[in-house]
Amino acid sequence: EIVMTQSPATLSVSPGERATLSCRASQSVSSNLAWYQQKPGQAPRLLIYGASTRATGIPARFSGSGSGTEFTLTISSLQSEDFAVYYCQQYNNWLLTFGGGTKVEIK
Amino acid sequence: QVQLQESGPGLVKPSQTLSLTCTVSGGSISSGGYYWSWIRQHPGKGLEWIGYIYYSGSTYYNPSLKSRVTISVDTSKNQFSLKLSSVTAADTAVYYCARTPTVTTRYFDYWGQGTLVTVSS
């Protein structure tokens, strides 16, 4: 099983600031990584797949980078609607696994 | 626009079988090469992939649940289903159904709203 570790667990950011979230895989997942956003009481929403490709309708302020074992999700200028929990997920291995999540909260 | 909707009992007794159905609208479950997934989220916790199915009936399960899980598909109703046997309180979770684009691009691009299943006597 590939273990996905996200850091930090909580990130306090002011609106308009940049947020950088990290995701590390216990072994290489190539670029087979997705990011999701989840707000309270809602299902996760796909943001990024292929490590860096934005899903349909996702604003350009969301960007993903990395390959192998180290990945980053960057939100360039946080909007009020961006405060949520973010998960990474690898799909390189047939056993699909998620990270534990990073909560982005208002500073 | 594809939409998915989970349905089923919100309360299941310990040792019984949890049964949920996901109804897909806005597209045929048997076209496009998609896989159809179940994922769960324990209260206040992260996400756990349960398994997925292709319209032909091919299935792939998380080995941690494999002995208790069955996922099936009914193309005539555009639905797929989850059965989880011998449930315990540890199976209390929000259960989501989701679409997986292909067998190699196995992320989840469309999700149902989720349904909370509580295991309790």
Biggest β-sheet of chain A, characterized?
A: 7 strands, mixed
Helix content of chain B: under 10%
Helix and strand content put the structural class of chain A at: mainly beta
Largest interface summary: A-B, 22 and 18 residues
Q: What sort of overall outline of chain A do the alpha carbons produce when their principal axes are compared?
A: globular
Q: Number of DSSP strands of chain B?
A: 11
Low-confidence segments of chain B: none
Low-pLDDT regions of chain A: none
Provide the fold topology.
The complex is a heterodimer of chains A (107) and B (121).
Chain A: E1 4-7, E2 10-13, E3 19-25, E4 33-38, E5 45-49, E6 53-54, E7 62-67, E8 70-75, E9 85-90, E10 97-98, E11 102-106
Parallel strand pairs in A: 2-11
Antiparallel strand pairs in A: 1-3, 3-8, 4-5, 4-9, 5-6, 7-8, 9-10, 9-11
Chain B: E1 3-7, E2 11-12, E3 18-25, E4 35-41, E5 47-54, E6 59-61, E7 69-74, E8 79-84, E9 93-100, E10 110-111, E11 115-119
Could you characterize the architecture of this molecule?
Chain A is mainly beta. Helix content of chain A is 0%, strand content 50%. Chain A has no helices and 11 strands. In chain A, the strands form 2 sheets. In chain A, strands 2, 4, 5, 6, 9, 10 and 11 form a 7-stranded mixed β-sheet that branches. A 4-stranded antiparallel β-sheet of chain A has the order 1-3-8-7, with no helix packed on it. Chain A is globular and about 35 Å long. Chain A starts with a strand and ends with a strand. The mean pLDDT of chain A is 97. With 121 residues, chain B is an all-beta fold. Chain B has strands at residues 3-7, 11-12, 18-25, 35-41, 47-54, 59-61, 69-74, 79-84, 93-100, 110-111, 115-119. In chain B, the strands form 2 sheets. In chain B, strands 2, 4, 5, 6, 9, 10 and 11 form a 7-stranded mixed β-sheet that branches. Chain B starts with a strand and ends with a strand. Classes of the chains: A mainly beta (107), B mainly beta (121). The interface between A and B is medium-sized, with 22 and 18 residues.
